[in-house]
Q: What sequence folds into this?
C-alpha cells in the first residue's frame, strides 16, 4: 500500500560508453538518492544509441555493462524497475503514436539534433530527428512526476511535456506532465580540458573526461592536468570556469559549500586543490567500482535481473499504451 502513494520517477541513460563523472554527478547519483522516496523506473536507452552507427558486438557488451553499472550504483531491482529499453516493446509503439502528435518544426528546433547533425553529417537519419519523441515515449509511458536529468536534457523534457499537453488537450487527461529534477550542484559538469564545454563521453581528448571506471591513478593524472587559469586562488568567480568546475565536482562529492572550500584552501595552490578533488572523486567512486567488478563476473544473474525488470516495465507501460490507443480510436480486439 505504502508504495502506491509514492510519486513516480523515470530516467534513462545511453549505453554508448562508460558513463563520465558528468553522467554520474548530474544524473546517476540522483537516481540512487531518489530511489528511496519515489517509485522509480530507470532504463538503459539502447534504442537511442543506434541513431549513431554502433558496432553490434560493442553495443551488446556496453548495454550489459551499463545495466551492471545501474545495479552497482546501488539500485535495488526489487524496489525500482531497472530495465533495458529495447526489451520493452511499448516504447517503440508509443513513440510511433507520438510522432503523429509532434510538429516537424518543434523537433527541428532541438539543439542536440542540430549539434549531432553537424557532427555526423554523413548520417543524418530520421531516427536522429525523432530521437526526442522516443524519449517522450520513454517518459510518458510511466506517468512520472519527476525526471532526474542533467541540464543538457532539459529541452528534451520540455518537448515531452508539450507533446503530452497536446495529446491531453485533444483526448482528455492521459499523461502526467513530468517535471525535470536537476540537482543544484553538478547539473553541468564541464570538460577538464575546455571548461566552457560539457564533459562528454564522445570527447576525442581522453584527458577531458573522467570515466566512472577509471583507476585511481588515471583519475589523479586527469585532474592534475585539468585546465585552470593563471590566478592562484581557489574561489568561485565568473572568469574562472576551470576552478568553478573543480569546485562544483568537489562540492558534489564531499557535500561542502563553496564558502567552506574557499576557506579550507585559502593560501594553498591549485596543485593541492586538484589533488584533493581527485581524492574526493576516487572515494566517491570506490564502492561503485567494487560492486561493478563483482557483478560483471555473474552474467547469468545480470540477465535474470534484466528479464525481471523488463517484465515489471512492460506491465506498467502497457497500461498507458492501451489507454492511449483506445483514446485515439484503434480497433482493439
Ligand atoms: P545521456 O546518456 O547522454 O546522459 C545520461 C544523463 O547524464 C546527464 N549528463 C550530464 N549531467 C551533468 N554534466 C554533464 N557533463 C552531463 N553529461 C550527461 C544527462 O543530462 C542525462 O540525464 N536522451 C538521454 C537518454 C534518455 C532519457 C530518456 C533521459 C533516453 N530516454 C528518458 C531521461 C528520460 C541521453 O542521451 O542521456
A:
Amino acid at each position: 500500500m505504502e508504495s502506491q502513494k509514492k510519486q513516480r520517477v523515470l530516467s534513462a541513460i545511453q549505453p554508448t560508453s562508460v558513463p563520465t563523472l558528468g553522467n554520474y554527478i548530474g544524473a546517476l547519483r540522483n537516481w540512487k538518492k531518489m530511489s528511496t522516496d519515489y517509485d522509480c523506473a530507470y532504463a538503459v536507452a539502447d534504442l537511442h544509441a543506434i541513431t549513431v552507427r554502433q558496432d553490434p558486438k560493442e553495443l551488446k557488451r556496453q548495454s550489459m555493462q551499463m545495466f551492471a553499472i545501474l545495479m552497482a550504483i546501488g539500485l535495488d531491482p526489487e524496489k525500482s524497475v531497472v530495465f533495458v529499453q529495447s526489451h520493452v516493446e511499448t516504447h517503440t509503439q508509443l513513440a510511433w503514436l507520438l510522432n503523429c502528435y509532434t510538429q516537424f518544426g518543434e523537433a527541428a528546433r532541438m539543439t542536440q539534433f542540430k549539434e549531432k547533425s553537424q557532427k555526423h553529417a554523413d548520417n543524418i537519419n530520421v531516427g536522429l530527428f525523432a530521437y526526442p519523441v522516443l524519449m517522450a515515449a520513454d517518459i510518458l509511458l510511466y506517468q512520472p512526476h519527476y525526471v532526474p536529468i542533467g541540464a543538457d536534457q532539459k529541452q528534451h523534457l520540455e518537448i515531452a511535456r508539450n507533446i503530452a499537453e497536446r495529446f491531453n488537450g485533444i483526448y482528455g487527461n492521459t499523461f502526467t506532465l513530468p517535471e525535470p529534477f536537476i540537482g543544484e550542484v553538478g547539473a553541468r559538469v564541464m570538460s577538464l580540458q575546455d571548461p566552457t564545454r560539457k564533459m562528454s563521453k564522445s570527447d576525442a581528448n581522453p584527458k577531458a573526461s573522467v570515466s566512472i571506471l577509471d583507476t585511481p591513478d588515471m583519475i589523479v593524472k586527469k585532474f592534475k592536468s585539468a585546465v585552470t587559469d593563471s590566478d592562484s586562488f581557489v574561489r568561485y568567480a565568473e572568469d574562472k570556469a576551470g576552478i568553478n568546475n573543480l569546485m562544483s565536482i568537489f562540492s558534489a562529492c564531499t557535500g561542502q559549500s563553496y564558502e567552506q572550500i574557499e576557506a579550507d584552501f585559502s593560501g594553498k595552490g591549485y596543485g593541492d586543490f586538484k589533488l584533493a578533488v581527485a581524492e574526493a572523486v576516487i572515494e566517491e567512486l570506490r564502492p561503485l567500482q567494487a560492486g561493478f567488478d563483482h557483478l560483471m563476473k555473474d552474467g547469468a544473474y545480470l540477465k535474470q535481473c534484466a528479464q525481471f525488470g523488463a517484465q515489471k516495465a512492460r506491465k506498467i507501460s502497457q497500461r498507458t499504451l492501451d489507454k492511449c490507443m483506445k483514446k485515439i480510436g484503434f480497433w482493439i480486439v
